[in-house]
Recover the amino acids of this structure.
């Protein structure tokens, strides 16, 4: 903006991020390429108002971002909510690799009960193998590298919106939208339109 002679305050940019990031992230979820049916799921910690919150994230076996969700708690209800959201946008996976978290296991088991009850025809295989999540742990680095200098967020809703924008930018860098010949800016412009 400064190169074009437009003087914009950083607070204005923050308001734009909070307002438009969730819309662009939703558009990105709808436009991304189909992903693998083998998922890796874990959560990482983000500070909001001086307290730790949990950023649930899932990638497929190729490292493509499936979904993400910021939660105030790390419990079964949050894990179930995340899995319902991820399945709603990506379909039912064949298997999900998680860590030793009991909340994530309980959330997946409750979804398996729902899938069995509605007669979906398949059940999610749950694997708790420590080293299969390495691809996701490495993917967390990108988020941490950007959020660490921010020194935390002041409000939960702005943190969720900002993280949605960061995740969408990461998906653009991973070229998850099928437009391989387009620049990152052109892909972003296509999502923002």
């Amino acid at each position: 903006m400064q190169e074009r002679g437009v003087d914009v305050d950083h607070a204005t940019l923050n308001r734009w991020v909070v307002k438009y990031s969730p819309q662009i992230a939703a558009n990105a979820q709808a436009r991304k390429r189909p992903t693998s049916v083998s998922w890796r799921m874990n959560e990482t910690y983000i500070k909001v108002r001086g307290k730790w919150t949990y950023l649930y994230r899932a990638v497929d076996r190729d490292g493509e971002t499936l979904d993400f969700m910021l939660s105030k708690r790390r419990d079964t209800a949050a894990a179930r909510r995340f899995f319902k959201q991820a399945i709603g946008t990506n379909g039912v996976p064949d298997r999900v690799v998680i860590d030793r978290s009991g909340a994530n296991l309980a959330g997946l088991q409750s979804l398996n009960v729902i899938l069995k009850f509605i007669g979906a025809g398949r059940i999610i295989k749950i694997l708790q193998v420590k080293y299969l999540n390495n691809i996701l742990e490495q993917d967390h680095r990108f988020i941490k590298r950007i959020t660490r200098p921010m020194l935390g967020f002041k409000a939960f809703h702005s943190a969720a919106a900002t993280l949605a924008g960061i995740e969408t930018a990461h998906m653009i860098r991973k070229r998850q939208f099928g437009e391989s010949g387009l620049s990152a800016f052109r892909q972003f412009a296509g999502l923002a339109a």
DSSP finds six helices and five strands in the chain. The chain has one domain: 10-192.
